[in-house]
């Protein structure tokens, strides 16, 4: 076999690919569900925390900063393993899927809170004062005046973070979540051929390329004329 | 003055930490009156204005606006602020909304009008400041003078009992000042009660009923513009007027 043939045999082995396509497709669907859950709950929680922080309560702000710094500092894999193997000792055994979801959602929430908070801070005080002086309440001002401006600034770093953290779904393979990477690795062991990994990479591309494109579209929509 | 006061502020004190900014200011403004406030930078003019709608919380004192105790805790401050229009030096338009959106926001969220009604009232407010054709423009597409007129429309659309202006023309290029002053004069002719912090002396002479001179957190001198400008009693006011002439 020539080098090129060897490469094709190893990484683009059609027979192996055909055999493992169904299991990787299943892994793909599971990853999509996991990613959707992480993104929805992580961003919602991050936004909520930023809003709570804007209330200006010292105790609340301190607690939020503590949470944020903790979850930004510890590698997600450590937290996932800790939950998955630690919690059963407390009589509570969430699945690997739930552990991965919860940890990555919390990590995303931590980063999202920081990004949105920075956006809120960047809105000039005069915007608050103008809105409040017309009789708008605190939350109406936040929702209608401050957050739209804050989120416009936040949208680019937020989508970058979201994509980076959502790729962490691959960490679920460590705690028995049958997502793309787990399925691909299993395929590699069973077939003794790395082609399933190629398929896995393709699956990730199919999942994340649309997210990157969507991010671009959101960015364009949020850019009002200056 | 026969008509009842719309603003009655008594013994207003305000400190920022150790810094005493207002030191016992009284301000009583009658219905339809136009009061001008002048004074050197840092004398507390903005702070006084901002106390009137509680953007700033006075350290002590009493403020009644349109019969409502501004500082009482049970006062619905948002309902009250709707009746006190405020215009800022830096316009503070919402950059993500059109001129129409800027004016309509509080009409919808505070007054509770439906979108169609709010926009109709917003359009007529924009027409009153001469910007009927700019309803769909974003703030960044407007000149400073136009932006400030949108800001005036935003406040006026709520049909306030009194309008507060904090240096409404001092961020404007000289050739744009006139358009804003014209709108203010028009408001005045419509019978609006106004408190104006500004150094537009010609406008003060022509339109003000009364001018207050503040320095060091106190009202040093007040009276009709002719008296105040023509025959200033205090040295501080004389010095201040001289410093304005030099510019
Ligand atoms: N939020 C604040 N915190 C601390 N100090 C403040 C605050 N707001 C105003 N000051 C101080 O209060 C003093 C009076 O300010 P104010 O803005 O009322 O003056 P002003 O008469 O409006 O001056 P200018 O003509 O420059 O606008 C200034 O010394 C200012 O630095
Ligand atoms: Mg000022």
Summarize the structure.
The complex is a heterodimer of chains A (226) and B (247). Chain A is an all-alpha fold and 226 residues long. Helix content of chain A is 81%, strand content 0%.
Structure description:
Helices cover 81% and strands 0% of the residues of chain A. The termini of chain A are far apart. In chain A, helix 2 (14-54) packs parallel to helix 9 (195-222), helix 3 (58-73) packs across helix 5 and helix 7 runs antiparallel to helix 9 (195-222). Chain A is built from nine helices and no strands. The longest helix of chain A has 41 residues, at 14-54. Chain A has 226 residues and is mostly helical. Chain B is α/β, with parallel strands linked by helices. Chain B has nine helices and ten strands. The two termini of chain B are 35 Å apart. The model of chain B has no long low-confidence stretch (mean pLDDT 94). Chain A binds chain B through residues 124, 126-127, 129-137, 140, 144-145, 148-149, 152, 224-226, and chain B through 53, 55, 78-82, 84-86, 88, 90, 92-96, 105-106, 109-110, 138, 140-141, 151, 154-155, 158. Magnesium ion binds next to helix 1 of chain B. The site of adenosine-5'-triphosphate has 11 residues of chain B, from strand 2 and helix 1.
H and E string of chain A: HHHHHHHHH
- Major sheet of chain B: order of its strands? 6-7-8-3-9-10
The count of strands of chain B amounts to 10
In percent terms, what proportion of residues of chain B is strand? 25-35%
Biggest sheet of chain A, in brief? none
Kindly provide the radius of gyration of chain B, computed on alpha-carbon positions and rounded to a whole number of angstroms. Answer: 18 Å
Largest sheet features of chain B: 6 strands, mixed
The pLDDT mean of chain A sits at 92
Distance between the termini of chain B: 35 Å
Count of discrete structural domains of chain A? 1
- What is the strand tally of chain A? 0
Helix segment tally of chain B: 9
Q: Categorize the overall geometry of chain A.
A: elongated
Name the chain pair whose interface involves the most residues.
A-B, 21 and 28 residues
Structural class of chain B: alpha/beta
In quaternary terms, these chains amount to: heterodimer
Question: Which CATH-level-2 architecture of chain A?
Answer: Orthogonal Bundle
- CATH class descriptor name of chain A: Mainly Alpha
Give the CATH topology of chain A: MetI-like fold
